Structure formats: structure tokens, C-alpha cells
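Re-running PQQ-dependent dehydrogenase, methanol/ethanol family to confirm reproducibility after the cluster update. Everything else is unchanged from the original entry.
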Amino acid sequence: MPHGTFNPAPRKSSGDWTSQAGDFANSRYSELSDINEKNVDQLKVAWTFSDGALYGHEGAPLVQGDTMYVVSPFPNRSYALDLTKPGAPIKWMYSPNPSPMAIGKACCDAVLRGWAIGDGKLVYSLLDAHVVAVDLKTGKEVWRTEMADVSKGVTMTSSAFIADGKVFVGNSGGELGVSGWAAALDLATGKELWRAYSVGDDEHTLIGDRYKPFYPHLKGEDLGLKTWPKGMAQHGAGAVWGFFSYDPETNLIFYGTSNPGPRVPVQRPGDNLFSSAVFARDADTGEAVWAYQFTPHDQWDYDGVNEMMLLDLPINGKMRKTIVHFDRNTYAYVLDRETGEVLKADNFAYQNWSTGFDYETGRPIVDPAMEPKPEKTLDRICPPDIGQKDWEPPAYSPQTGLVYLGAFNICMKLTNHKVSYIAGTPYDGMEMERFSVDGPDGDWGQFIAWDPIEGHAAWRIPEKFMVMSGALATAGHLVFYGTSDGWFRAVDARNGKVLWQQKLSSGIIGQPMTYRGPDGVQYIAIASGVGGAAGVQAGRDGYPPRGSTLYVFSLNGKQVEGTHSSAAHPEGEAPQQGAPGSRG
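Result of re-run:
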């Protein structure tokens, strides 16, 4: 059977990496192969860079031409690093000085999941709900747009996404009862072009004549109001803090929405549209073309924000334009990206909240015994609130036809308490205790190679800690990922054999990337700085301290002008940490 394909647009050079995923399709695949399965064991550190910010480092550095662009978590400083000189010294630094109030409003650490390059600008969101554009050459601010009032609990942690002359952004704050939205800004000026809310009437959700969902229960007038108790939709969350993708053929953008608010389900009977869902929207107008809800009446905080990979796959013998989405609810979805029909829904890890999937209705079948009630404790619900996979993005390889993803192996003990809405404060009510599926000494994580056509894992690597880094696949038959306790690994994309690994100074929750430098050398880069949702493991033995270091690797540590990162050792004799194939 043939493998799937994807559109690599807008990538013009296999050597540059100008968006978090490398392309509109969210593939995180690189055609570079100088580093491959035969020589990856020669990888050594070429140079490092610390931004000094001790919050979770979740983004990937970007490279265009002879410069690397890095943005720190709060206070969201950006740096241009000169790749033509040894050690990549700083060309410029821009400090936007966001409001410190944002730190106290951020649900889950003062993180930033990425930034983007377009039209000579570096564009990214600030934690205090602004978006900035910085001139790539000078580091001077070009424009700055306020998107919301941070005092009301709205923050911004998602990666800005650039396509067709627009910047697409979304908000965070689902645990504070914000009203979730996605918006488009003009790349040249920063002017807001449109804003589409996740919850509310058709006018605010931009649902009109073009909206044609596949399933009957998603059709109707003002469903963003009518599927909520009266007066609750305005604080119904559906925040947009994950990743965007874009199909240039149809001019549609795709993104997911977060949990409903409050997280206590008994207070909001109904499907609670359009929380924990995906929207397909016209990139120019924001008009909804279709929507699909992954977890109707989400009772466990499963969200729907995880990435939408745009892959063309042979399903039942017919090539289909699809979205591949690994939801926190533990279903691996393959959707028709033109209609929103569920073509496949398979469990990629252990779960017990659902007894199966109803393809006729497009809804998971909920086990009534797993539905939480206020002041009643459920001892074992799997997955927990952060899913068996959180936001950490997977990678796809057209060489193998497999998707590679970091995942978990955990459950939770849950007790709910009724809550009231107070602006800018938690609108939550969930009390969780998380633990391994396999008992007190069990692994909390795993790395999975998934066949999206057949709907099963090709191989798995167990990990002691949750795997919360993104993945990178390359034409060198390699996949790179990191672990929460700081191991950066390269594995054979075909069989999962660990070919190389290096222990870094902190845990890894960032996104690996690769680029070809101005010296013609291929490099691999990853940020080391644990934080974010990985902090639920902070009490476990071996959990590392925070950090702020970007590591850049090359074969034998080579960098520009022939300098060597292991100067104290003759080439080939520098000590390596971690033997290939070992667990660490």
C-alpha cells in the first residue's frame, strides 16, 4: 500500500526552518539527510545559548539564511544569533516588557509554544495578550497589537502562524472561564482582520451560509448558545492555545479549541459547542466552513487543541485529503478535511472513559461509570486531564508513512467541586491526582510510531517520564525527541532503535528542528528547560531542575570556521553521555 503525502508549502529551502512545524501541513519533516542512521552516533554539541528565562521552553528556534531567531518564555525576549560566526553571537535582542500580571494569570506556566517568520518580520505572542512584529534585520519593533485584557484572565501562549499575508493567533485561559477565540491580523500592519469566537451565537462564532458540518447534531442555529445552560456560554472557554495549519488549495485554516468552562460538567449540561472541537475556517474572512467536536460535553478536560496534520492518505483504497489529530481523549482521528467526517478513530494508548466509537453519529461512547459528580471521588479515570498526549506535536515521515509522537501512560483520581465565576480567577473545580497506568513503579511516558492508515502502533519506546517534547523526522531515516528528565534521543524511524542520545542540563519539552547553516553543515537544535504541564511529575525521583539552554548539535561538533566544541579532546575522543540503545 502506498504511503501518504503532504504539501511542503511554503518551504522554499530545505536548509531554512521558518515556522514551528516547517510547513503549513504541520509535518515537522525535513529533507536534510547529511545526518543519518549511519553517522548519527557522531553527533556532538557545536554550541549552546542561554536566554536566562526559567519557565518552560516549548518553542523551536527558527532559521532564515544566516540567522537563527530565538524567543524566550516570559519575559518573551527575542534574539537574533549570527550563524556565520563561531558560537553564534547575538546580533540583536528585543525586549517587549510584557506585564508581570500575566504570570499570575497563566494557567500552566509562563510558556510560549513558538514564533513565526514572514515578510521580513519575526512575529510572536506575548503572555499579556499582545502580538508583536520585530524587524528581522534590526530587531526594532514594527507593530504591536493588544488582543485582550490580561486582568480578565486572557493570556497568549500559542505559536503565531503566518500564511497568505496574515498572522493567525489564539488565546489561552480556559481554566479561568475566558471566551475562546482565534483571530487574523494583517502581517504588514498588525491590524485585526477578523475574530471568531469558539462559543456563542452564530454572529460571534462566524457561522453562516458556508457552514456545512458533516454530522446532523452539529447543524442548527446558534448551537454555540443552545448547547449551554442559559447565561453560561459567555464564560464557556474553548480557548485556542494550540497550533494552526493551512491548506493553500482550499484557503482553509484548521485549529482546535480547549475544554469548556467550568471544568465541572454537572454545572453545564449539554454538548457545550464548540469547545473541545476543531474548526475549518476561510483564512480571508474567518467564516466557519465546518466543525467537529472530539469530546462532546467534555467532562475530563480533554480539550481539542492538539495539532491538525494535513496529510493525504489512502483510506479504504481511496486517496483522501485528511486531518490526522491525536486528541487528549486518546483517540487518533483521521478526518476528511473537506467535510469533517471521521474516517478513523483508534485508541493510540490506554483509556477507560469510553467503550468505543460510534461512526454513525461521530461520537465516542461514554462509560457512565466514568462520569464525574460533585464531591464524589472517581479513583481511576484514564487518561487524566492532560490526556495520553498533550500539546506536544508529532512528526510525519513520507519515507515510512508513520507519525511519531510523544505520549503518556497515566490515569487520575478525580474529585469535582462546584465553582462560581469571578473574572480573572480560576473557574475550575477539578482536583486531580495522577499516576501510572501500570501502578506505583510504572512508566509515565512512551514514544510511539503510529500507522494512521492501519490505525495501530508500529513500535513503542517506554519512558520513565512523560514525553512532552515535539518530534522531528528527517530524510536521514531518523526521528528526534526529548524526555522530561533531559534525554535527547535519535531513533531509527523504521524500527525505533535508539541510535544516539545525550543527557541535557534540564528536561526537554521543546520542539526539535534542523537546518543547514551558511557553512553548508546540517545542524540539529533543541531547547532544554522543563516546565509547563510536565510539572505534574515534579515530585517524582529524577525530575530535573529548570533550565534555559538551547543546544545545537552537528557531526563531531563541527561549526563555522572549523572550530570544535570539544576543544579539550582530539576529534573523535570526546566522551559521550549515554550508549546507543540504552534507556538512561
